[in-house]
């Protein structure tokens, strides 16, 4: 799957999320890349680029002040090659794999930790 096809599916997956959910994501940008860059992997203490499927960068909603102006949008990165590798390994459809990673990263936007999302099975 090339980068454009992956991006198209990711956009479809995002657009299929419930409206109530998407309405809380107006200041979130979704970016697709092949892999996380070396600085990101190093900052997260990840040695293998295939080990990072996605990343949320921003200020989680519970940590925001009531009125914050001038904030850059939050960013959710979806990493194409690791997600494609996960999809090949698990056998699920690509949209389901993308949705799993996307919902996990959106969970960080809402302030949930990895442990909390694991408990929710997100």
Question: Would you kindly provide a written description of the structure presented here, covering whatever features stand out?
Answer:
- The protein has one domain: 2-Layer Sandwich (Zincin-like), CATH 3.30.2010.20.
- It has helices spanning 3-15, 19-22, 38-43, 80-90, 94-109, 114-120, and strands at 28-33, 54-57, 74-79.
- It is globular and about 40 Å long.
- The longest helix is centred in the C-terminal third of the chain and has 16 residues, at 94-109.
- Helices cover 47% and strands 13% of the residues.
Q: Name the poorly predicted regions.
A: none
- Category from helices, strands and their pairing: alpha+beta
Largest sheet: number of strands, sense, barrel closure: 3 strands, mixed
Please report the distance between the alpha carbons of the first and last residues.
Answer: 25 Å
Global outline:
globular
The total count of strands amounts to: 3
Q: Class in CATH?
A: Alpha Beta
What name does the CATH topology carry?
Zincin-like
Total number of helices: 6
Instruction: Name the strands of the widest sheet in spatial order.
Output: 1-3-2
| Mean pLDDT reading | 90
Element string (H = helix, E = strand)? HHEHEEHHH
What amount of the residues lies in strands?
A: 5-15%
How would you summarize this macromolecular structure in one to three sentences?
The chain has 122 residues and is α+β, with helices and mostly antiparallel strands.
């Amino acid at each position: 799957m090339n980068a454009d096809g992956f991006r198209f599916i990711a956009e479809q997956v995002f657009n299929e999320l419930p409206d109530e959910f998407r309405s809380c994501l107006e200041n979130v940008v979704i970016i697709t890349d092949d892999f996380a860059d070396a600085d990101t992997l190093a900052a997260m203490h990840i040695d293998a680029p295939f080990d990072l499927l996605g990343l949320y960068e921003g200020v989680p909603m519970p940590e925001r002040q009531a009125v914050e102006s001038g904030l850059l949008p939050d960013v959710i990165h979806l990493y194409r090659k690791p997600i494609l590798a996960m999809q090949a390994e698990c056998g699920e459809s690509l949209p389901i794999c993308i949705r799993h990673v996307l919902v996990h990263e959106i969970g960080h936007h809402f302030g949930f930790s990895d442990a909390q999302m694991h408990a929710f099975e997100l």
